[in-house]
Amino acid sequence: MTGVPASAAGGPSQAKSSAAPASPVSGTAPDASDAPVVAVDGQDAGRPPRGAKLAAAAVNQASVWNIANLLTMLRLILVPGFVALMLADGGYDPAWRSLAWAAFAVAMITDLFDGHLARTYNLVTDFGKIADPIADKAIMGAALICLSSLGDLPWWVTIVILGRELGITLLRFLVIRYGVIPASRGGKLKTLTQGVAVGMYVLALTGWLATLRWWVMAAAVVLTVVTGLDYVRQAIVLRSQGIAERRAASEETEA
User: Fold this and answer.
1) From CA 12, how far away is CA 122, in angstroms rounded?
2) Which of 14, 126, 146, 252 is most buried (CB neighbours < 10 A)?
3) C-beta separation of 16 from 7 below 8 A
4) DSSP 32
């Protein structure tokens, strides 16, 4: 014992105590979680650094530019190009109609791939959810209206198909609070049949091919009506189940 206080000795005990003051409860040095928050450049270190939200938003914005959304954008761009080709030179030139068919075919093919890519590689975005159905209906609607305006397809066919598509889209939004109506096999077959039928009408076909396209379009119309009624049935069932579940949950809470 020298009688000299440790603080005056300037030994290791002084450095240890100054670097990590003892906890008033345990008498031991606190861990890193007890360390005071240090401000860096006038900002609380416990908060995210400045611009973090903007950086995250930039990343989310960049994710919109994925292959699935680019294919959807391509379909949207093809719509006015298709219309221009379809109506070029009065709308009856076989060469222009062939080019219009090529644009329509590209749009239909990209429709098959963009949704699959988005789901497979986790590329689903809010933009894609909104733009994909718009692009689908835009190219199909443009083709049907052009064909009817040129007298190649009766207007009632165009009205039935477009009326069904718009009606089912509205119905999905009305029952979305109760759940989502999944795409059925019949709906996918309807889409494929519509694409084939409209594509055959876009081409300047004659003879037995012209007769065949009439039957394909008839099948497309039948599938359009049948699947539309099935979606209405599903929407009614989904709404009824949702109301029943909410009523049961409300009664359980009150009890």
Assistant:
1) 57
2) 146
3) no
4) G
Highest mean pLDDT among 40-44, 57-61, 121-125, 186-190: 186-190
| Distance, CA of 233 to CA of 218 (rounded, Å) | 23
**Cβ-proximal residues to 34 (8 Å cutoff; 6+ apart), any chain:** 23
* For residues 27-48, average pLDDT: 45
How far from the centroid of its chain's Cα atoms is residue 232's Cα?
22
Rounded Cα–Cα distance for residues 224 and 161 (Å) = 6
> Collapsing DSSP states into helix, strand and coil, what is residue 68?
helix
Given this model, what pLDDT does residue 63 score?
67
Q: What H or E segment, with its residue span, contains residue 205?
A: none
pLDDT tens digit sequence for 192-235: 999 999 999 999 888 999 999 999 999 999 999 999 999 999 99
- 248/245 Cα distance (integer angstroms): 5
Question: What's the burial of 220, exposed, middle or buried (CB within 10 Å: 0-12/13-18/19+)?
Answer: buried
Rounded Cα distance between 221 and 157, Å, is 7
Sequence letter at residue 143:
A
Q: Measuring CA to CA, which residue among 109, 101, 106 is closest to residue 201?
A: 101
Task: Give Cα separations from 230 to 97, 140, 160, 187 (angstroms).
Answer: 35, 21, 15, 9
CA 46, chain centre distance (Å)? 35
Question: What is the C-alpha separation between 147 and 202, in angstroms, rounded?
Answer: 7
